[in-house]
Amino acid sequence: MTIEPIMTVDDLNRFLDTDFPQVHTDGKVFHVTAVGPGFATMRLDPNERHIRPGGTVSGPTLFALADVSAYVALIAHIGPVALAVTTNLNINFLRKPEPEPLECTCRILKLGKRLAVLDASIVKVGDDDLVAHATATYSIPPR
């Protein structure tokens, strides 16, 4: 069964700007770049605040990218539900990410009435080697 999105890239970016502005606390570094059946992709353009000694993007920044991407993939398919929340997120850091743009593609593995399970893959833009991989579970509030 294919799950079709009901929100566009523009819809999602606008929703983040208006209903979730805290995602832009460090400047506008997160951008939705693609949405399709069962997935969404976001880009992170890290700034100085996201870089750790040794010239790497910090773990908390990668975690945030995975979490926000999972949220975006979910709402792209169920609509702008501001109160959908993370109930679990597990991340594996696989490679040292250089301080350059990253993208996270998040796929919906299961979309139920109350819970969604998603898979997030983070790579350097233009590369296929995984920097980090996460799985997330989101709670969907009753309608």
TrEMBL record:
CDD domains: PaaI_thioesterase (cd03443). Pfam families: 4HBT. Its EC number is 3.1.2.-. Keywords: Hydrolase. One of its GO terms (molecular function) is fatty acyl-CoA hydrolase activity. Residues 54-127 form the Thioesterase domain. The keyword ATP-binding does not apply. Gene3D superfamilies: Hotdog Thioesterase (3.10.129.10). SUPFAM superfamilies: Thioesterase/thiol ester dehydrase-isomerase (SSF54637). It is an enzyme of class 3 (hydrolase). PANTHER family: ACYL-COENZYME A THIOESTERASE 13, THIOESTERASE SUPERFAMILY MEMBER-RELATED. Belongs to the thioesterase PaaI family. This is PaaI family thioesterase. It comes from Ensifer adhaerens (Sinorhizobium morelense). The lineage of its organism: Bacteria, Pseudomonadati, Pseudomonadota, Alphaproteobacteria, Hyphomicrobiales.
